[in-house]
Amino acid sequence: MRRANGFTLIEMLVALAVFSIAALALLRLDGFAVATTADLAARAGATLVAENEAALIATDPAPAILGTSTREHSNGGRSFVIQQAVTPTADQRLVRVDLAVIDRGSGARALLTLIKRVR
């Protein structure tokens, strides 16, 4: 019996299975890219808030008060928790200020440390 030109049903099913596996892999990769982009945006927001707080602390003429504090801050429609720890250094003219900013929505964190002169 002579074979007709074209593909058999089995060949078509195998090709469809290979194509569907590749399509699912691309969908998963796209989902990962979207999640990564959202995480980067949240971290960028937390970093911006941390840098703004550091600038406020560095330019404040009042001396930094030793100890820890926690406060809420809102920026760009997002809510952040700012944790600040002020500790003395070996040089009594300087204090160390550690800032941790946490995005309430995503949990993204930004950490920043600065040294401030005591006046």
Automatic annotation (TrEMBL):
Residues 41-114 form the Type II secretion system protein GspI C-terminal domain. Cleaved by prepilin peptidase. It is a single-pass membrane protein. The keyword rRNA-binding does not apply. InterPro entries: N_methyl_site, Pilin-like, T2SS_GspI_C, T2SS_protein-GspI. GO terms for biological process: protein secretion by the type II secretion system. The keyword Methyltransferase does not apply. It is found in: Cell inner membrane. One of its GO terms (cellular component) is plasma membrane. Type II secretion is composed of four main components: the outer membrane complex, the inner membrane complex, the cytoplasmic secretion ATPase and the periplasm-spanning pseudopilus. This is Type II secretion system protein I. It comes from uncultured Sphingomonas sp.
